[in-house]
Amino acid sequence: MKTLSLITLLLALLANVLPASEAKEASLELLRDKEVVDSFRQFPVQEGGRIKPLDTVARFRLLRYHGKQSITAEIEGQKTTLSAMEWLLVTWFRPDLAKNLPVFVVDNSDAVIEIGVKAKGKRDRYSYNELLEGRTSLMKKMQDLRAIEEKLRTPEQRALGKLSLDFLDYEMMMSHFDFARAPLGEDTKNVPAELLTPPPAGQSRIAALLPKMGEYFKAHPEAAAPMANPWLRDFYRTMLGAMMSGNEEQVLRIFPPAEGKTEVWQSPGHVLQSVLETGSVDAHALSLLTQYEALYNARLDAPAFKAKLKAFHDSVLSTEAARHDARHVMLEVGYHKADYFYNSLLYFVSGLLVLALSWAAPTGGWGKWSVRLSALLLSIGLIYATVGIVIRCLIMERPPITTLYETILFITATGVLIGLLAELMTRKGIGLTVAAFAGTAGMFLSIRFMNMEGTDTLQQLQAVLITNFWLATHVPCINLGYAAGMVAAILSMLYIVQRVIGSVKVGDARAKDLTRIGYGFVMAGLFLSLVGTILGGIWANYSWGRFWGWDPKENGALMIVLMNLVILHARLGGYIREVGFHACNIVLGMIVVFSWFGVNQLGVGLHAYGFTDGVWFWLGMFWLSQIVLLLGAAFVSWSDRQSKKQKASLRGAVAQMN
Amino acid sequence: MTKQTSIPAKLFAFFSSFGLATVVLTFLLIITLLGTLEQVEHGLFDSTKKYFESYVVTSVDLGTWKMPILLPGGTLLMQVLFVNMLCGAVIRIRKSPRTVGVLISHLSILFMLFAGFVSQHYKKDGNLALFEGEKSDEFQSYHESVIEIERLQPAAKDGKRIAMVIDGASFQDLSEGKGRTFTSNDLPFDLMVMNYEENAEPRRVKDESEKKWQADGFYLQPLPKKPEAELNLDAAYVKVIDKKTKETQLGIIWRAEAVPWTVKVGDEMYAFELTRRKWKLPFAVRLDKFDREVHPGTERARKFTSHITKFTGGREEAKIITMNEPLRDSGHVLFQASFSQDQGSAGAPVSRSIFAVVWNPADQWPLYSLLAVAAGLLIHMAGQLTRFLSRSKPKAPSLA
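YS: structure for the whole thing
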């Protein structure tokens, strides 16, 4: 891994111009052909420690660079929208077009100004060619940034760091098939003559070259230094392109091993690397590489290309069939295609809008039918979200929550479910409102979070987390506690907003309902958070030998329990009444959000899942909005006291008159 | 008419009140938040000591935001909470079917707090690191420092080599010129410990006149404290005073020292070592093989597995310790905590497995408490929900 990074850095620092594309390239039509695209989508590959479809790799690569899973640009004179898979094929087979696609999203224009490139908007997208003039500066900045700890970087430095990594990765992607185009570079005048002898008729160029290279390095070990040999440097570049990343975890491992016991797949680049490291090539891997090369070479003939594609796909599947590693690939392709969470968001938003229409005339027929339609839309949204979560469980063969992203999905779905159940029990429209707000906000958040992370959301777990029993008990319980806390907070937000605008008065039926249901959720939240927290302690005792360690995530859960207890005891003691209760619930919501997202951002403790850029900003915005609501609660409380005083003085005056 | 109440009754009313519960819980919430935020800069160990194992908190230090403050500490708050729950939710509470759940859940939480108290005072926890093929029957504390005095010559007849152990609590306050003398009837000398530093390293004295404190040409250079407490290397100056001749010998003891400081007193030879406290296990463990699995193509750990042999008396048993599956025996629990790989003598990498070892009399008590608290809350909530639903139902129209 270290070697690979050093090579990447070395190549990054060398002035690089990608090999000019060959005159004859695959047609855009072929690369967008449904049969071709679908076939590539279903390719099993190993990345990040698991087998997944190539479609997933394409989607998350594009999401990371571009901020979206599709890209729209003018290609060959026409405005075209490419899916992630189509885009990947264009980068592989048509680098000449890929260089002009506005792939790189830059959130902070200072980052591009810093490397001497003319900025467009504050947040804008740039093509490879637009950034090319700043390449040398970008690579220099990347080298400087390595000395600064990730946490200590400024937003501009983080943007530059991301841009430089994306830029390099993109170069590697575009040279993915260089091993078939020109494995030793375009300029071959310094290449030893024995390596340039053309292969016998009908034999693959790469299949002929690699064994010859192995022999050459055995005979000339002194030649194995890339700085001394420009052609070897080009071969290294070809090798990295065939790997598609300098990060070992993101290398495109597309060749399954022949041996049943070996779990690690190889990338085309690994096959090239083995020649440099061992002087020999594995026959099985070379056979797959040859087929892969043949696929590229058939790019000008659509029927032949499709035939080679099918043959290569079949070879991969038959090789991996014994282990059955790729058993969930089709399920995952379908999962992405169905886009469950985006669809659920659409239904939740529709449900919210229809519900809002009912507020115009709540008691008439219009209102009743709007409520029913809203309940139906929210239920469909919930079904979409639930099916999406279940499919994720089936793909990964584990319980639903293992990452921060999955907590958002789960909490949103359960928030909507309990809102709908509350509505079913009370039929006062309150549960429906909660469900609509929770669903809309939660699903929007999940999509936003995924875009900010820009990495595959189905991830392999660390050793200590691989235990289905605790993942199925402690984790859902804690997250249900979060959900209950958030629902209580949403109810209180509704209460305060309605009180401020005057649509609800203190002590009236609606206010009492909001308070009573809110109280129920605080009780449920207490139960779930308390049981979940203690279960977590018992898990920690089984795994680490201590029940409680004051770790930030543990403390976050404890704070939720404590806030629930404060609310219940203050209410029982009569220290808070209606407004006070709802103000406390707002604080509870702020604590839930701190525990849910904030503690991860601290970057300390056993549960630190990593820093996500931009989260503090959104947390700050949320807390600010809640402080505004607390000020609203203070105003309502003051206004209640004033009106009480006025009533008392009025009664006094009446009594005096009598 | 005013109601006369006695002072004990007033005290009981105060300690059993909802008001006290609310205040204590609020303070607990505040110190938990502050204790969490301070971990970023000061580490878990120091934050835990300052906020959760203290009676008062006198300052807040969050990066650039530093200010003096007076807050109750975690120990005080949990003690008051214990009393409050006992008085209010166990003694004072109206005993009726409606409050059964509340009573059970509060009793369970009291039991859990008690379990926490027992753990804090009686639990022994540390680690045991073994290379493949290595065997040991003792483990050492993570944080607790002690000074061990070992008699090297003459060898003790009973084979017991450790002549004296001085607890960390007895010398860790001796910073900045402070010193304390320790004595034992079994030893021919007194030992004075001075200038204890939580993190320091011995350095060679370049100019003899420069340093007031020096031993064998070295002095102790204090270093900034690291947030990760286990990375700090503590040290102190020690002076051995011969009881007969009153001759003194000054030395340095440092936790990372490769060999202990040795001193001859009369005809006897002693070694002095600043080390972590060690405890004996009732059995010995040999690491036979360590396996580390990673997710394919990554460095992400999938499983750590230690194949060990446990020796109890003359009996040998082959066992496996892996993530989430510890070895439990005679009240001791061995967990797979970590691993390291070093270069072996033959140049080949040698694996070392690191076990967390715990002896805790309250080991399973939280589990019992959890079951009870869950039952109590469920009973209470079921009652509440039933009453809520019956209130929510529309009333039947009156026939009258």
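YS: worth flagging: The longest strand of chain A covers residues 70-75.
IM: good catch. Also Chain A touches chain B through 67 residues (CB under 8 Å).
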